[in-house]
């Protein structure tokens, strides 16, 4: 491989990296916008714990649930409830013996002076009590959403799933993330998160 | 200077690419509780009972077609299966909440070379200690839950498979 090629390869790679993501940093939080999808992700990394919130367009979420047998009304209700893809991970090495537990019920969502909780999957399920949501649809919902409470062991454990903040599309909010490390409470803020807007991008 | 930056970018890329899987392994299950028994049908309608596998080590993966990390780990499970299938170890993929047609179409893009069982009503998964997909268990010869992996793994890794093989020793 010639030097010229190496330089060109590296320049293209560096350009690709900078084009792919525009990154800004809060303490322990990186914010990345994918230039292709225009969707933004907030990634909190702190002492062996990683939690990422990636915007999901309402259309994406709507299509997912319509394809799993939900009525248009229920699919719309979920899609417009500020849904993110959540990815939680224990990044400690095997043998470090450090368990991380996440309980979404302890998280707080701040919009201006108001504070609220994350809307749990159990709350959604209870709301559909009287509505016609089939068993198959409920199964899909249950397993496609982030568990309310889960423990991750230091052997590469991770999980992902949708999380709804129950705010209107485009709302900006701060989220107070709480977890435990071997039972000891930990916390961090992820600030200025934005609910995905209800846009319908045309294919280019 | 440019060169230095390039190496930095490459190193960073390598670090991101490898860190996620570097230490990925299996969590030993405390007290090795008995694996909840089940009877499920495969894609040909044949019944499979977990206790029929007694005396063999079984890798049981719970998954769904719409689950991205499940799709990501399936090729490595096929490669892992190719390594262990002649060693007396069994591997099954329990699909959660979907029907044969959905799985059949899915296999056009993501072939699965080992046994697929259908938990169409999601009743079996509720009996197991599972909160998300994919989750995989290794059941020992005595029918006990020996290991668990929450999230995807590289199932063709010999370091990981050797833990499974160790359970298979007489």
Question: How do the strands and helices of this protein lay out in sequence?
Answer:
The complex is a heterodimer of chains A (204) and B (170).
Chain A: H1 3-20, E1 21-26, E2 29-34, E3 40-46, E4 49-55, H2 58-66, H3 72-79, E5 83-90, E6 100-103, E7 108-111, E8 114-117, H4 121-127, H5 135-144, E9 149-152, E10 158-164, E11 172-181, E12 184-194
Antiparallel strand pairs in A: 1-2, 2-3, 3-4, 4-5, 5-10, 6-9, 6-11, 7-8, 7-11, 11-12
Helix pairs in contact in A: 2-3
Chain B: H1 2-22, E1 27-28, E2 39-42, E3 47-49, E4 58-63, H2 68-84, E5 90-96, H3 100-109, E6 115-119, E7 135-139, E8 145-150, H4 158-167
Textual characterization of the structure:
The complex is a heterodimer of chains A (204) and B (170). Chain A is 25% helix and 38% strand. By secondary structure, chain A is α+β, with helices and mostly antiparallel strands. In chain A, the strands form 2 sheets. Chain A has a 6-stranded antiparallel sheet with strand order 1-2-3-4-5-10. In chain A, strands 6, 7, 8, 9, 11 and 12 form a 6-stranded antiparallel sheet that branches. The two termini of chain A are 36 Å apart. Chain B has helices spanning 2-22, 68-84, 100-109, 158-167, and strands at 27-28, 39-42, 47-49, 58-63, 90-96, 115-119, 135-139, 145-150.
Question: Descriptors for this entry?
Answer:
A: 204 residues, alpha+beta, 12 strands, globular, B: 8-stranded mixed β-sheet, 8 strands
How would you summarize what this structure contains?
Chain A has helices at residues 3-20, 58-66, 72-79, 121-127, 135-144, and strands at residues 21-26, 29-34, 40-46, 49-55, 83-90, 100-103, 108-111, 114-117, 149-152, 158-164, 172-181, 184-194.
Number of helices of chain A: 5
Helix percent of chain B reads: 25-40%
N- to C-terminal separation of chain A?
36 Å
The tally of strands of chain A reads: 12
How much of the sequence lies in strands of chain A comes to 35-45%
State the order of secondary-structure elements of chain B, H for helix, E for strand: HEEEEHEHEEEH
Please count the beta strands of chain B (DSSP E, at least 2 residues each). Answer: 8
Shape of chain A: globular
Number of helices of chain B: 4
What is the rounded distance between the termini of chain B?
Answer: 59 Å
Q: Cα-atom Rg of chain A, whole angstroms?
A: 19 Å
Overall 3D shape of chain B = globular
Listing every helix as H and every strand as E from the N terminus to the C terminus, the arrangement of chain A reads HEEEEHHEEEEHHEEEE
